[in-house]
Write a structure and sequence with these properties.
272 residues, alpha+beta, six-stranded antiparallel beta sheet, 6 helices, 27% helix
Amino acid sequence: MQFTHLDRIYWPELGATKRDLVEYYRALAPVILPHLEDRPFTLKQHYTVPRGPYRYVKDAPPELPPVVKRCPQPAKSRGGAIVEYAMVNNLTSLLWMVELGAVDLHVWPSRCDKPESPDYVLFDIDAARTRDAVDAARRVKEALDVLELESYVRTSGGEGLHVLVPIARRHTNEEARAFANVVAGALRLDAAKIDTKMIGRGQQVVAGYSVRPLPGAPVATPLRWEELEPALDPRAFDLRTVPARVAEVGDLHEPLLHGRQSLAIRTRLRDN
């Protein structure tokens, strides 16, 4: 495919261009694509550069080639009318999205064949300071450990963190959100907030390894739990540093692709 404006400066503080973004996604495609595959994709289309004007495009743009598969889904916002979402299942599809203005990658937490059944529960932790987000994420993990549920953590690209719990695809979005609300409500955090509204049909979650359109080109980066220290600096994980990290440690979130955990155990926390 032919790219345009490859020398356009995207992150002047890094001297990074659109070409650098293309090459980042080309290099990371083997670990990114499994987390995007068969999920409805919304294009966050930047007209020129990151941090510039943008719009969200749900329908697959007509210029996409046939290799980009579609996922038709009824949209509540359109009175039940069908949205023809694109799916990013291969390298060509991924690079087309970047050419069309994508910087970060937004997908549903469920796949096209079972849109009402998410693959994971997401705890979106927001805090003014990273150390507060770290403390909150640790407390979420402790609660999940009590319930004997495996969990995984990543930076969000900002000051926050994401904690993800892979689950079997027999649970509904409502069940997953109810579980997350029980856990979040039990923690009674002061310095951080846990958002659970991204669990649901049509919700768009920033995928792991996405470059964010923020200063310094930070990346939503999977971490080991032992890396979650008060001095954690999410800005250390960026477009320049993450490829070497992935080459060394691989995909730390690969277990999210094989969720088999049950949320029936949630009643134990609710009843205690």
